[in-house]
Design brief:
This protein is mostly beta strands and 101 residues long. The chain has no helices and eight strands. It has one domain: Sandwich (Immunoglobulin-like). It is globular, with a radius of gyration of 13 Å. The chain starts with 20 loop residues before the first strand and ends with a strand. Keywords: Isopeptide bond, Ubl conjugation. It holds the Pfam family DUF1416.
Length: 101
């Protein structure tokens, strides 16, 4: 079976993923449908707010962070959701966030 990579997660030119830690993903509802316009927050290992972005029309989001433990929190009209991600090295690290009421 052949699978194409997820679209919409293009990394800007000049970003060296050998040195940068990039957290990407998609906000989805319980049925796996992308949730556009969700607020996605990046919280550090102590739960402290670090950054926030708005998910794209296809539910995609991206943060530049450091290796460590992070919480991705999505807030939307379709519900909210949290997920923990713990990249231990630079590179692209993908984690979707499912939201529910």
């Amino acid at each position: 079976m052949c699978a194409a990579p997820k679209q919409g997660q293009n990394i800007p030119a000049g970003v060296d993923v050998e040195k940068e830690t990039v957290l990407t993903g998609q906000v989805v509802d319980g049925g796996g449908t992308p949730v556009s316009g969700a607020f996605v927050r990046l919280l550090d290992s102590t739960g402290e707010f670090t950054a926030e972005v708005v998910a794209s029309a296809t539910g995609d989001f991206r943060f530049f962070a450091a290796p460590g433990t992070w919480t991705l929190r999505a807030l939307s009209a379709q519900g909210n959701g949290d997920v923990t991600i713990a990249p231990d090295a630079p590179g692209i690290h993908s984690q979707d966030v499912a939201v529910a009421r």
